[in-house]
Amino acid sequence: MNTTHTILTGDRPTGPLHLGHYVGSLRQRVSLQHQYRQFILIADLQGLTDNGSNPQKVSANILEVMADYLAAGIDPTKTMICLQSALPALAELSALYMNIVTVARVARNPTVKNEIAQKGFSRALPVGFMAYPISQAADITAFQADRIPVGDDQLPMIEQTNEIVHKMNNLTGAPVLRHCQALLSPVSRLPGIDGSAKMSKSLGNTLLLSASEQDIHRAVSAMYTDPDHLRVSDPGRVEGNVVFTYLDACHPDPHKVAQMKAHYQQGGLGDRACKDELENCLQTLLAPIRARRAQFAGESDALLALLKQGSEAARDITQQTLDAVKRGLGLPVLW
Ligand code: ATP
Ligand code: MG
Fold it and tell me: What is the whole-number distance in angstroms between the Cα of residue 20 and the centre of ligand 1?
């Protein structure tokens, strides 16, 4: 194991994981766990920032997400999977960082701006939601993580984190926090099955990792292709064609996809054939995940025990970072 880098990522347990998580981040995490020290955080506190009145939506999905991780190939003997609310140092660091970030700075975060508009909060915007990039900075820095495999919606969060690192290290006069960088996957933003910009739980346009054969068939059948590709013999467009975007993201043989694209653009390759290829590829990708996931149904005690084990391992390291920051700021560390 190479200990030069520490990997941290997280997911909000606001629903089961989907194909966007897989191609945007989870797939990378599965291979990184063999090389580096890796933590994955189930971000239940962050999940509550836009579900304050509906906490069951978050609590009910913690073990669902845990089951998705294991089914997708995260190995709990290699990756420490932990629960955000079980690690008080994260919340304390967050409270300290809030004093060195301005409201104006948080307000111009493009991802947060987008989400606020999308969720239609208007004046009912929860303070916690507005501040979640700061809490995310606390998560990343508490683990001294320096490599973050995320989708491109998270780039503003990484930038914000590095600003906090810079300020805090200046303020304390010591490198108490570590700078970090995003590891973007080649597919850093998978569109929704409806063709909209991003597959996302909140937008209800997902293909779940636990999708049934029928779900996969329905999703692929309903996908948009090129609206001007009327006859098989017509030349078709692959840009903005959701079927090809998914083939690029998921097909194991890029050479074959390149050949299909050339054929489609030239004319002579039908939408039905492209969809069949995509459906086969998704069925092959998701069948083993679905089968492994089924093994965890009714195993909530075992899942909880694994979560506890990972969270225990994370407690010391996050507390050490908090203590270093406190000392740096001149605050007494009593225990
Ligand atoms: P929510 O709508 O509740 O915010 P989400 O679907 O956006 O849910 P998150 O838990 O916010 O999922 O995201 C977890 C991780 O997965 C992040 O690193 C994010 O960048 C990545 N991710 C989520 N959706 C996609 C996507 N469609 N394409 C690529 N990466 C994605
Ligand atoms: Mg999100």
Answer: 7
